[in-house]
Predict the structure.
Amino acid sequence: MLCKRIIPCLDVMNGRTVKGVKFLDLKDAGDPVELAARYAIEGADELVFLDITATHEKRKTLAELASKVAQAINIPFTVGGGISSVDDALTLLYAGADKVSINSAAVRRPALINELAARFGCQCVVLAVDARQTEKGWEVYLNGGRIPTGIDLFEWVGEAVDRGAGEILFTSMDHDGTKGGFANEALAEMSQRFHVPLIASGGAGTKEHFVDVFKIGKADAALAAGIFHFGELSIPELKQYIYNQKIPVRIL
């Protein structure tokens, strides 16, 4: 069995790491380069950098800042935000990213997934999807959770995988920042239906939540932000706990 991955996330706005609750009430969480370096030393398996306002502000990702983060770490690095073309992705890969994350632009133009997979390989293409549960099921949202689409989460993920997305980063907007646990039921269904690596995001608050997301949610990786940024839980402590629960994880 492959080791489960722990992935800190840097949500970046105006050059600073921020964290909110359900995508609102964002608070400063520190310098992204300093945080990235710390997480690499502590044993994070990967790092995700998301320029969370790039699409909404109709601009490109902060490539210069992403490059500084890349230089500070020695672990796989995913960058997203404002990517709408092969050239955008190429800029970030040249800046030091190992993978690119696409979200709103892929929903608006699904062929973008095919183009990126054809140019860089499926393993380089991460589909990030933000969704909220409604009376009709899980609905996909765009522009950092600002715009509802009416698109079903599972239908969209299925299409994206068929088009070449090599990994799924699913954030439950209902769980984001609540520290009440991940959306394990939806994650388990996604894991069963789609045979690509699945990263769970939204809701991490305790060590037990990570065990649940791996055992119940069947996720391949768990992403968290605030609990790491504000020192509520350390990566070495978390990994040792997960390992003690008989879940394979990389220990330094």
